[in-house]
Amino acid sequence: LPHGYEGQGPEHSSARLERFMQLAAQENIRIVNPSTAAQYFHLLRRQALHPKGRPLVVLTPKGLLRHKEATSHLEELSEGRFRAIIDDPRLDADEKREISRLVLCSGKVYYDIIGHEAFGAAGGVAVARLEQLYPFPVATCDELLSRYPSLTEVVWSQEEPQNMGA
Questions:
Q1: What distance in Å separates the CA atoms of residue 83 and residue 85, rounded to the nearest whole number?
Q2: Which helix (H) or strand (E) holds 155?
Q3: pLDDT of 131-166, one tens digit each?
Q4: Strands 30-32 and 56-58
Q5: Residue 139, CB-side half-sphere exposure with 13 Å CA sphere
């Protein structure tokens, strides 16, 4: 985030997500916002090994470097892979049948949502992370939505103002 919006000091950057999203067309670039160390590792590995070379735009705040919840276990690094969408890890298949509202978000705002004091009292809500913003993972998103048969509402949450961000 530009100029210390996150509260971690100056970023010395004018990188704005919406500017990169406006430049994206016909899968000319990849735009991601990884939320864990393993996701970042697998993203870089996937980028290096991908047969179609495309520029990679990684937007992630400094705050995730020290965030306890954003750490990864060794197994996630050695056996995992990059996931374009990460489903709510708190819920099993039976609990997902009761969910009526799905909140999609990207990056650090996920930790803000699940860490909020009111989140525990909010029943029937699941939070999923969209890690790859462009190209949009349509098939993976369809698969995610199919896991929630009682879903009545899908909401997008972002840190930036409405006319900015993803």
A1: 5
A2: strand 153-156
A3: 999 999 999 999 999 999 999 999 999 988 887 888
A4: parallel
A5: 1
Residue 41's Cβ-side half-sphere holds a number of Cα atoms within 13 Å equal to 15
First to last CA, the chain: 13
- Provide the CA 148 distance to its chain's centre, in angstroms: 19
Question: Do the Cβ atoms of 115 and 68 come closer than 8 Å?
Answer: no
Cis omega before residue 149 (within 30°)?
A: no
Angle (CA) 154 155 161, round 5°: 160
CB 35 within 8 A of CB 108: yes
Give the mean model confidence (pLDDT) for residues 50-79. 88
45-68 exposure pattern, b = at least 16 Cβ within 10 A, e = fewer: eebeeeeeeeeebebbbebbeebe
Q: pLDDT digits over 5-20, tens only? A: 555 555 555 678 888 9
pLDDT digits (tens, 9 = 90+) for 73-121: 999 999 999 999 999 999 999 999 999 999 999 988 999 999 888 888 8
Asked whether the beta carbons of 90 and 132 are under 8 A apart, the reply is no
Model confidence at 2: pLDDT above 70: no
Give the amino acid at 152: T
